[in-house]
Amino acid sequence: AINIVTKKPLGEFAFKQQLTYGARDLRRIATTVDTPQWGGLAATLAFARLERGGLVSSSHTDAEPGERESTGFRLALSWQPIESLNMDYSYDLSRRESNPNINQTSYVRPIVADPNGAFYGGAFYETLAAFSSSDRLGQYPVKNTGTPNETDTHGHTLTVEWELLSNLLVKSISSYRERDSLEPSEFGTAPAPADGSLCASPN
User: Fold this and answer.
1) Once rounded to an integer, what is the mean pLDDT over residues 56-81?
2) Please, which residues have CB within 8 angstroms of residue 77's CB and are 6 or more apart in sequence?
3) CA 84: distance to chain centroid?
4) What's the rounded Cα separation, in Å, for the pair 51 and 49?
5) Contacts for 161 with CB less than 8 Å, ≥ 6 apart
6) What are the phi and psi torsion angles at 13 (to 5°)?
7) Taking 80 as the threshold, does the pLDDT of residue 166 lie above it?
8) 3-state SS, residue 87
9) Half-sphere exposure of 144 (CA within 13 A, CB side)
10) C-beta of residue 140 within 8 angstroms of C-beta of residue 58
11) Are 72 and 93 in contact (CB under 8 A)?
């Protein structure tokens, strides 16, 4: 079994800064600050933000399918009022906006795309087969509103360890988390009306 434990506050001052820049307009900043211990209490503050462009561009909206933005924050507190008692609390918050990637269909079995076939799946599969290609296409028609998906997540965690005796340790782990998600974007490879289509081109 693998047990992954989040790093606790160091109990001494520390500062860490990371900056990243890459392809597809990738930009990432991550900052971590540890405070000195005072009265048995130590804290860690962490912040991160990421932005990345999409893999394709839309001729119907200003959005780039595949692009995303995310911001995260975390506060961790560690308190040891007495030698036998440890309390660790953390709060984290993350917000993300993204536009789903486009998947190009490479092949549709003729048995479901042929109107005269015994297993004809309908006009959807017939149309899908017409737009399928094993080669990467320069443009691709899809249905999408261009509205990004949004996800907000936050949670609390509390861990208490109390050593009652040299051979007796009582431990409590509690947590609470909420997640709100709005996902209006949905892609489909089918004939799209003028008010709901975009033509995606590789960036």
Assistant:
1) 86
2) 9, 41, 42, 43, 88, 89, 90
3) 39
4) 7
5) 85, 86, 87, 169, 170, 171
6) -70, 135
7) yes
8) strand
9) 31
10) no
11) yes
Q: Which amino acid is at 49?
A: R
Task: Please report the pLDDT score of residue 47 as a whole number.
Answer: 97
pLDDT tens digits for range 111-149: 888 887 777 777 777 777 877 888 877 766 666 656 778
* The pLDDT of residue 203 is above 70: no
Q: Residue 175 pLDDT > 90, yes or no?
A: yes
Distance (Å, rounded) from C-alpha 43 to C-alpha 37?
Answer: 8
Burial status of residue 195 (CB atoms within 10 A of its CB: 0-12, 13-18, 19 or more) = exposed
In degrees to the nearest 10, what's the CA dihedral of 101, 104, 110, 111?
A: -10
Question: pTM of the prediction?
Answer: 0.72
Quick one: CA dihedral 11, 76, 49, 55, positive or negative? Answer: positive
The burial of 53, by beta-carbon neighbours within 10 Å (0-12 exposed, 13-18 middle, 19 or more buried), is given as middle
Supply 179's token pair: 């997640």
